[in-house]
Design goal:
Layout lengths: L5 H35 L4 H30 L4 H20 L7 H24 L1 H4 L5 H31 L7 H18 L2 H6 L12 H14 L5 H30 L4 H29 L1 H21 L3 H29 L5 H30 L2 H6 L2 H12 L4 H15 L1
Helix pairs in contact: 1-2, 1-4, 1-6, 1-7, 2-3, 2-4, 2-9, 2-14, 3-4, 3-7, 4-14, 6-7, 6-11, 6-13, 10-13, 10-14, 10-16, 11-12, 11-13, 12-13, 12-16
Organism: Holtiella tumoricola
Subcellular location: Cell membrane
Protein name: MFS transporter
């Protein structure tokens, strides 16, 4: 990474920093810990599962609805860094606070987790939008891919440390309770997140912006309304968001449902954790490869390759029966997961007007978050109607096909830029 600028390195490090939260807090240790706290607080298993889901949904909904509004305000000079710092701070402080909750207070733990989700998701809106400030159009695919790739490796280091602490505690080799072991992992995650965000806070600045006005909030609402009103001038962006909505829904569903699918095949939790770790290591080089090939062949072609790969994954998922089959499936997911996410981010960043990047990444966030609804519902419905999880997995192909067809309708980036530049002049 010696050939990267200081701003590019600092931006990439935030993926390295916050991925520890995704791995440890969202996916593994906190959900298990919450179940323990809920049980100590005499909450039924059914209620705890339902409240956990409601908390995630409500927090994500709040961020998604606020995203375009906050993003529009953040397009003013000096606001992007302030909003990023605010949400990042909420996330880190709330993660630290998780360790201070008594082990019989599930409602307090849920409230703090809601703030964690708010801080993490909110910070990512402005972090993604900073991509236009730290690099050029020609390097965006490469830099975005490096970010996701470093995130995969960065998430595994604290995760392995945290898992070792928990496992040693369970084996009686560490003279502390399981609850205290989990709290230590929360502090490790917050520390990792905070320390590796410092370079971004120091070195990354908002290069593209709109000059401040006398009434920035009311003016922001007017600009947001004008964007909706002039949506026909943003045809390329709008069609891409529809395509992204469908294919990223399939990607996120496969990621989110993989543990349940593996459990249905009789794979133990320990084995699933090992598979999850190895998938991260597989995703690292393939994500970088996607970035390099996108620079050579074009980002759109790599998105096509990613979607086709996932269609093949769905077909293969229909036929798997053994743990070995699941290993192959997981490695295939790792080969495309980071690449399609990274290139989607950079492709969108090249489509949008740079001085309005926060506003448009607010819409990007909404489409990405609401896309997480349809896929799981489709899998659940088909699985329930047919009685076979395999049928639920193969049903996701329809999402990837729709996404592929819509992506074909996105105009070339050069044509889109001409339209967006023209509309920016009209709206400014």
């Amino acid at each position: 990474m010696n050939h990267l600028t200081r701003q590019e390195k600092s931006w990439i490090l935030y993926d390295w920093a916050n991925s520890a939260y995704s791995m440890t807090i969202t996916s593994t240790i906190l959900p298990i810990y919450f179940k323990m706290v809920a049980s100590n607080g005499h909450m039924s298993s059914t209620d705890s599962t339902a409240l956990w889901g409601y908390t995630i949904s409500l927090s994500t909904l709040i961020v998604s609805l606020l995203a375009p509004i906050l993003g529009t305000i953040a397009d003013y000079k000096g606001f992007k860094k302030k909003f990023f710092t605010t949400f990042f701070s909420i996330g880190v402080v709330s993660t630290i606070a998780l360790a201070l909750v008594p082990e019989n207070q599930p409602f307090l733990l849920l409230i703090l987790y809601g703030f964690c989700v708010l801080g993490f998701a909110g910070g990512n809106i402005f972090y993604d939008a900073f991509l236009v400030d730290v690099t050029t159009n020609e390097r965006m695919d490469k830099i975005s891919s490096y970010g996701f790739a470093m995130g995969y490796i960065g998430s595994t280091i604290p995760f392995i440390i945290c898992i070792i602490i928990v496992l040693l505690t369970q084996q009686g080799l560490l003279p502390i309770s399981l609850g205290l072991a989990c709290k230590i992992t929360f502090l490790i995650t917050a520390l990792w997140w905070g320390i590796f965000t410092l370079p971004l806070l120091k070195n990354v600045k908002q290069t593209y912006y709109i000059e401040p006005e006398s009434h920035p909030i009311s003016s922001s609402f007017k600009r947001l309304f004008n964007t909706f009103k002039e949506i026909r001038n943003y045809r390329g962006i709008f069609i891409f968001l529809i395509a992204y909505f469908f294919y990223i829904d399939g990607v996120d569903t496969i990621i989110g449902m993989s543990t349940s699918y593996g459990t249905d095949l009789g794979i133990s939790m320990t084995t699933l954790l090992i598979i999850l770790l190895l998938t991260q290591f597989v995703a690292f080089p393939f994500t970088i490869l996607y970035g390099k090939l996108a620079t050579k062949w074009g980002a759109k072609k790599l998105l096509y390759i990613g979607i086709i790969t996932y269609i093949c994954i769905c077909f293969y998922g229909y036929f798997i029966k053994t743990a070995l089959d699941f290993w192959v499936l997981a490695m295939a997911v790792g080969s495309a997961q980071g690449g399609i996410q990274a290139i989607s981010r950079s492709y969108f960043a090249k489509l949008v007007p740079k001085e309005k990047s926060n506003e448009f990444f607010g819409f990007y966030n909404i489409f990405g978050k609401f896309a997480a609804i349809m896929g799981p519902f489709l899998v659940a419905l088909v699985t329930q109607l047919t009685g076979r999880t395999n049928n639920g997995i193969i049903s996701l192909i329809i999402l990837f096909i729709i996404g592929f067809i819509m992506l074909m309708r996105v105009p070339d980036i050069e044509q889109s830029h001409q339209k967006e530049d023209h509309s920016s002049e009209l709206n400014l």
